[in-house]
Write a structure and sequence with these properties.
78% helix; 305 residues; globular; single chain; mainly alpha
Length: 305
């Protein structure tokens, strides 16, 4: 019973960490969107992850020395970095073109994909209440923003690609969660993502006119990338810690908190309107999150009694 109680508490802690992590991502997204027209999306992403990888390398060396950079199955970390690269460049490009809330809404097939992938590849069972919460939250997304993929054309593919990539990254995070320290895992995903993004930026600069880098970034672009690097790296750090405490399927529904925050930013920062129907969808999303939280709290109360 004591072991079961400890596992329950660990899982609840993982959900809390995921909640904080997912709540922080839309803030960085808004900062990235503010740079549209200042610098190309691939270059912004490359600068952001280069800063993050450098900072993590310093922290890792100070804490663990050279041994911290040795990892088992390096190809797995490269795959994590590639998934983050694909997810980042596709989503950054999407929010450059689309309203932030719409891009977030279309990308919210992520939890469904993560739940399916965790069952297929990790053999993790998704509890019925988690399935219900996920479906309710996804219905809330559809009600809130009524995303019409056909209306955006090919651009709508970008957040869908991002959703697939980020789901794969969550699964890979789970697979490496017991291999090395958190700092080593976070350094390698940022390092490989930066490498892939730098290559993509160079190729885009030469071959794709809209990706051409006009010159060195202005100081405010560097500062904004630094801010995003700090906040996003911290969120990824918390998300990785969450995958060490609970299943990827349990974490998946928490992503919907991003929709509420992204919508608030769209309304107050970018002037996008929101109607009563959208507010109803938001309430449904909140309800699904509270249902998950209450379920975990009830389980703890039963074990303590």
């Amino acid at each position: 019973m004591a072991a079961d109680h400890s596992m329950r508490r660990t899982a609840a802690g993982g959900i809390t960490l995921a909640l904080v992590a997912f709540a922080g991502f839309p803030v960085g997204d808004a900062v990235i969107k503010s740079m549209a027209g200042d610098w190309p999306a691939p270059a912004v992403a490359a600068l952001r992850f280069s800063i993050g990888a450098l900072a993590l390398a310093v922290i890792l060396f100070v804490r663990e020395g050279r041994s911290g950079f040795r990892v088992n199955r390096p190809w797995l970390h490269m795959a994590r970095g590639f998934c983050l690269f694909v997810g980042t460049i596709s989503f950054f490009s999407a929010i450059y073109i689309m309203p932030l809330a719409d891009a977030v809404a279309i990308s919210f097939v992520n939890p469904i994909l993560t739940a399916l992938f965790s069952g297929w590849f990790l053999k993790e069972n998704m509890p019925p209440k988690t399935w219900v919460a996920t479906i309710l939250a996804f219905c809330g997304v559809l009600i809130m923003l009524r995303p019409n993929v056909a209306a955006f054309g090919w651009v709508a593919i970008l957040p869908l690609i991002s959703a697939f990539a980020m789901s794969a990254m969550l699964i890979l995070n789970r697979m490496v969660s017991t291999q090395r320290s958190i700092f080593a895992a976070q350094f390698y995903i940022a390092f490989w993502a930066a490498i892939f993004l730098i290559v993509a930026s160079l190729v885009g600069h030469v071959l794709v006119p809209v990706m051409r880098v006009p010159g060195p970034p202005e100081w405010d672009v560097i500062l904004r990338c630094l801010f995003v690097a700090i906040t996003a790296t911290g969120c990824h750090f918390l998300l990785f810690m969450a995958t060490m405490r609970t299943t990827a399927a349990a974490i998946a529904p928490i992503v919907y908190i991003q929709l509420l925050i992204a919508t608030a930013i769209s309304v107050f920062a970018f002037g996008d309107p929101i109607d009563r129907t959208a507010m109803l969808g938001g309430l449904l999303i909140i309800f699904s999150g509270l249902m998950l939280w209450r379920s975990s709290r009830r389980a703890d109360t039963v074990l303590e009694a």
